[in-house]
């Protein structure tokens, strides 16, 4: 929306008065020769890459030169227009056009010869690049200047104070040169005629006199001090801005709204966004009856900030986005009957009172996006339709919690051009009345729960340029009628629905789109013939569309203009022999055969996973005619590639992801792989590589994922992995032939979340320093989770994860890889006890030490790893009992302690009893779930129903105890009793014992004397 303010009108009058006498452009007299020479000297010191000043030729009339304007009567140079229109890169334009724009910026030095232009009143050097030069002092001597614009020109240093001598100056813009710094603005007070002042991004932290100096300018209409690091409110008793209409103090660090603002009754526009102001909005605004534009967005105003707005009946623009508003939408909004623009986006609003919207009869633009509004979408639309039906042009309620169905009243907003309802929970069909919105240009209802099918009335929206219905549950058949009148359609996004579109093969679409997204539609089995008429396509997604066969030749002729091409997850086959002129190509999960195609030098992302591509990598990577200098992602996993990995990686300096896993590559890992210093993911898993890991890989110091698993690599695990690859998140060396010990340097990898060294020949003890792996030692609630999502130039995100073995099975993790923490050291020859320090890894989710030679007891504190989901200690030599703390492992879903020497009772706990007996087999454990119970003889008596079951079952008799008692009784009465009662037996018994005692005494005494005698002989 274009907001016309008083300030703009005043500024136009100023410019018109300045240039009215020489806007003809055709001078009646030749320029002054001395002034032409001065301009040529000025040109000599400039750097003009694009040759903008090619018309500046000696001997030619300087009044005809580009950017030079002369007085029609005198021939004197009056204006010098060498500024560029400020702009940013356009996603729709070719990169070459943006590069050409950047080259058109002038640079170099500013020659003092400009002083010789005694009659110049207009000087514009804005939006160039003068390489951090300071503003020349001589500019302060050009007394005839009324217009000076040096903004966005990359100047730095102190502002020359003699600019304050330019008493005729009406317009001064030095803004957006971020390296400026100044300690005072006292020099500004000399610009008595100034109407416009812009010092945005000038560092004014030390210039505490900025308010006192600028208020002395009696004619000042606009003051722009955005991003000036202002953090205080000078708060003078009074200010004297008699003409000020526009005040911009945005993007500073003001702690409160300056109180002096409320005395400026002539203000039309106030911009205080992005200051971090807290508390309640001051009531002083209610007396500013001339205010038409107010932006308080991106602050931290409290929930009661809207009550004062009821008196601003003439307010035309209000921006409160990100102001920290909470709670209900204040009813005071309803009193703003003249409000034309309302922006309360990026806040914490929870409900919009319908009555507050019914009186906004002049409303043209409303933005309620990015809040937490939780109500029926129909309440908002129906309330707006009662008053602003004929004026509303833009409605944005995206990214809220809206539910319910879209009402038929939506089709009554005749002037509605922009409708954003994305990222809510809106359900039901799109009403057919939407076809009545003849002014509609943008319709975005993506990421909702809309069902049914697209209404055919959409085809009547002749002005529609952007249609986004992606990520819903729309279904049904689409016909040519749906597109009958969409002649201006440029962006059509409808992926991730269940729609079917199979038009007549001869159908010619009425539109020429730049972007088409029909992923997950039913388009096949034939390749869509109507695409050949789309001559402007830069993005195409027809993935998962059930298309089969060979891609037609005419399609590859279109590919020269693609930025992004996604044909993945179809049944397309044949060879890819044509040049891939796109920056992003996704052909994953098809049936393409033959060798890798020759690629364009502009290629950035290539996905060919899960195809039948064969041959070697050499022709693709090492072709001297094609330099893949811009290639960032190369994903060719799960194909039939063979031969050695070529040694030409030095030319791929931009590569960030290299995935060659699951092929048939042989040979050693080439040394030049270490030249890819920007690589973040290196996957060479499941090939036939052999030899040692080259030390050159230690230069990959930004790598997040290193997967060399399932090869035939030998040697020891390099210690430099811990020393140099400090950012590693995943280290997978599984299923190789590595030997030796686990180096302690691994413990320094603070970001490591996955360590898999399983199925090797590693020996020695598990390092105790594993407790230093801080990414595994922190609970998930506090864990800093690494994130590696490669965002391309479209809405989809391509995640490249890792194939990991956890919970006893192999799974691929991509978007959830950031949540995985795992250590797998299984099937090695590790010895010694399990370090108790492992129990400090409180964030670990999977631990596998099975099939090693571990001894000792299971550390008690292993049971303190509360988020552990998988624990496998099977087939070791562990003994002792299962720690009782294991009953605290409430998240276990895979558990195996089989084939050890564990004893005792299995701790009682819901999780431990829920596992199968096989988790405990091969031990000496008792208690459920194993069959062996924990009584003395291995069986527990059954005392059910008082020792019987239905009168038939009796308790078992323990005959061992019975035989002991009977033996005692028989021995007592058979031996002791006769000695007690028969005297002759008793005397004979004791006499015999005495004889036996004498013999034993003589025997042991003889032996003792013999021993003593032998020791005495040795001593002699």
Could you walk me through the main structural features you see in this protein, from its secondary elements to its overall organization?
- With 1020 residues, this protein is of the alpha/beta class.
- Among the domains are: 9-228, Ribonuclease Inhibitor (Leucine-rich repeat, LRR (right-handed beta-alpha superhelix)), CATH 3.80.10; 561-570 and 579-703, Ribonuclease Inhibitor (Leucine-rich repeat, LRR (right-handed beta-alpha superhelix)); 717-955, Ribonuclease Inhibitor (Leucine-rich repeat, LRR (right-handed beta-alpha superhelix), Alpha-Beta Horseshoe).
- 13% of the residues lie in helices and 20% in strands.
- It is built from 13 helices and 64 strands.
- It has a 33-stranded mixed sheet, covered by helices on one side.
- Strand 10, helix 4 and strand 11 (222-224) form a beta-alpha-beta unit.
- Helix 12 (959-981) packs across helix 13.
- The longest helix is centred in the C-terminal third of the chain and has 37 residues, at 983-1019.
- It is globular.
- The protein starts with 5 loop residues before the first helix and ends with a helix.
Please give a handful of descriptors for the protein shown.
alpha/beta, Leucine-rich repeat, LRR (right-handed beta-alpha superhelix), five-stranded parallel beta sheet, 20% strand, single chain, 1020 residues
Number of helices: 13
Distance between the termini: 122 Å
What value does the Rg take, in angstroms?
Answer: 42 Å
Q: Which geometry do the CA atoms define?
A: globular
CATH homology group of the domain at 717-955:
Ribonuclease Inhibitor
């Amino acid at each position: 929306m274009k907001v016309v303010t008083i300030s703009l009108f005043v500024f136009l009058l100023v410019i018109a008065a300045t240039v009215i006498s020489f806007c003809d452009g055709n001078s009646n007299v030749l320029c002054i020769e001395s002034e032409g020479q001065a301009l040529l000297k000025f040109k000599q010191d400039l750097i003009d890459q694009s040759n903008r000043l090619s018309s500046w030729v000696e001997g030619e009339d300087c009044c005809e030169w580009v950017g030079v304007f002369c007085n029609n009567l005198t021939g004197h140079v009056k204006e010098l227009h060498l500024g560029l229109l400020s702009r940013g890169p356009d996603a729709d334009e070719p990169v070459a056009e943006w590069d050409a724009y950047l080259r058109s910026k002038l640079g170099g030095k500013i020659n003092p010869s400009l002083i010789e232009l005694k009659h110049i009143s207009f000087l514009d050097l804005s939006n160039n690049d003068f390489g951090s030069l300071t503003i020349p002092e001589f500019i302060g001597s050009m007394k005839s200047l009324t217009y000076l614009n040096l903004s966005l020109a990359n100047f730095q240093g102190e502002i020359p104070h003699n600019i304050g001598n330019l008493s005729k100056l009406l317009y001064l813009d030095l803004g957006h040169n971020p390296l400026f710094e100044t300690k005072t603005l006292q020099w500004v007070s000399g610009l008595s005629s100034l109407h416009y002042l812009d010092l945005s991004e000038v560092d004014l932290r030390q210039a505490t006199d900025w308010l006192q100096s600028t208020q002395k300018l009696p004619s000042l209409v606009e003051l722009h001090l955005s991003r000036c690091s202002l953090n205080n409110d000078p708060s003078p008793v009074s200010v004297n801005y008699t003409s000020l209409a526009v005040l911009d103090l945005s993007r500073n660090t003001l702690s409160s709204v300056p109180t002096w603002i409320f005395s400026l009754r002539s203000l039309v526009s106030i911009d205080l966004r992005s200051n971090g102001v807290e508390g309640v909005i001051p009531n002083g605004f209610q007396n500013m009856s001339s205010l038409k534009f107010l932006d308080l967005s991106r602050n931290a105003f409290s929930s009661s900030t809207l009550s004062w707005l009821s008196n601003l009946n003439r307010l035309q623009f209000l921006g409160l986005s990100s102001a920290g508003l909470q709670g209900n939408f204040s009813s005071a909004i309803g009193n703003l009957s003249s409000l034309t623009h309302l922006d309360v986006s990026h806040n914490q609003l929870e409900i919009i009172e319908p009555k507050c919207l019914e009186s906004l009869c002049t409303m043209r633009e409303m933005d309620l996006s990015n809040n937490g509004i939780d109500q029926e979408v129909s309440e908002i639309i129906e309330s707006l339709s009662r008053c602003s039906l004929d004026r509303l042009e833009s409605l944005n309620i995206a990214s809220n919690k809206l539910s319910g169905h879209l009402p038929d009243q939506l089709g009554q907003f005749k002037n509605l051009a922009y409708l954003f309802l994305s990222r809510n929970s809106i359900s039901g069909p799109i009403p057919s009345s939407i076809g009545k919105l003849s002014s509609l240009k943008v319709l975005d209802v993506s990421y909702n729960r809309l069902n049914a099918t697209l209404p055919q009335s959409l085809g009547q929206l002749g002005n529609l340029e952007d249609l986004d219905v992606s990520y819903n549950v729309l279904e049904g058949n689409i016909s040519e009628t749906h597109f009958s009148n969409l002649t201006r359609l440029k962006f059509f996004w409808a992926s991730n629905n269940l729609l079917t579109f199979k038009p007549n093969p001869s159908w010619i679409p009425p539109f020429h789109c730049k972007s088409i997204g029909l992923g997950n539609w039913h388009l096949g089995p034939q390749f869509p013939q109507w695409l050949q008429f789309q001559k402007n396509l830069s993005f195409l997604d027809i993935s998962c569309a059930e298309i089969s066969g060979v891609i037609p030749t005419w399609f590859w002729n279109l590919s020269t203009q693609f930025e992004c091409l996604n044909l993945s997850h179809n049944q397309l086959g044949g060879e890819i022999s044509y040049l891939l002129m796109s920056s992003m190509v996704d052909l994953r999960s098809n049936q393409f055969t033959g060798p890798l195609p020759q690629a364009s030098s502009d290629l950035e992302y290539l996905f060919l996973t899960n195809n039948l591509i064969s041959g070697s990598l050499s022709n693709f990577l090492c072709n001297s005619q094609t330099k893949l200098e811009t290639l960032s992602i190369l994903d060719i996993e799960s194909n039939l590639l063979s031969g050695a990995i070529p040694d030409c990686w030095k030319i791929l300096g931009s590569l960030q992801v290299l995935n060659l896993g699951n092929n048939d590559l042989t040979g050693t890992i080439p040394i030049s792989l270490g030249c890819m210093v920007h690589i973040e993911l290196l996957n060479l898993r499941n090939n036939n590589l052999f030899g040692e890991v080259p030390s050159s890989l230690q230069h990959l110091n930004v790598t997040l994922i290193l997967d060399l698993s399932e090869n035939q690599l030998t040697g020891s695990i390099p210690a430099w992995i811990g020393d140099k690859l400090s950012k590693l998140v995943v280290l997978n060396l599984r299923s190789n032939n590595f030997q030796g010990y686990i180096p302690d340097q691994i413990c320094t990898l603070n970001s490591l979340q996955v360590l898999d060294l399983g199925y090797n020949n590693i020996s020695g003890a598990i390092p105790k320093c594993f407790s230093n792996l801080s990414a595994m030692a922190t609970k998930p609630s506090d864990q800093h989770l690494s994130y590696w999502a490669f965002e391309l130039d479209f809405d989809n995100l391509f995640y490249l994860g890792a194939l990991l073995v956890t919970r006893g099975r192999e799974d691929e993790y991509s978007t959830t890889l950031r949540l995985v923490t795992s250590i797998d050291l299984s099937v090695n020859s590790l010895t010694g006890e399990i370090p108790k320090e492992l129990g400090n890894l409180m964030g670990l989710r999977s631990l596998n030490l099975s099939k090693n030679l571990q001894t000792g007891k299971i550390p008690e504190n292993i049971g303190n790893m509360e988020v552990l989901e998988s624990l496998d200690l099977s087939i070791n030599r562990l003994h002792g009992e299962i720690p009782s703390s294991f009953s605290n492992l409430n998240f276990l879903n895979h558990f195996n302690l089989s084939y050890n020497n564990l004893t005792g009772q299995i701790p009682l706990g819901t999780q431990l009893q829920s596992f199968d007996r096989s988790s405990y087999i091969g031990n000496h454990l008792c208690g459920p779930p194993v069959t062996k119970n924990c009584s003395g003889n291995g069986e527990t008596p059954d005392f059910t129903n008082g020792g019987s079951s239905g009168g038939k079952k009796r308790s078992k008799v323990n005959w061992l105890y019975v035989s002991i008692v009977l033996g005692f009784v028989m021995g007592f009465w058979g031996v002791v009793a006769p000695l007690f009662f028969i005297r002759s037996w008793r005397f004979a018994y004791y006499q015999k014992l005495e004889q036996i005692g004498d013999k034993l005494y003589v025997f042991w005494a003889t032996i003792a004397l013999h021993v003593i005698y032998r020791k005495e002989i040795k001593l002699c």
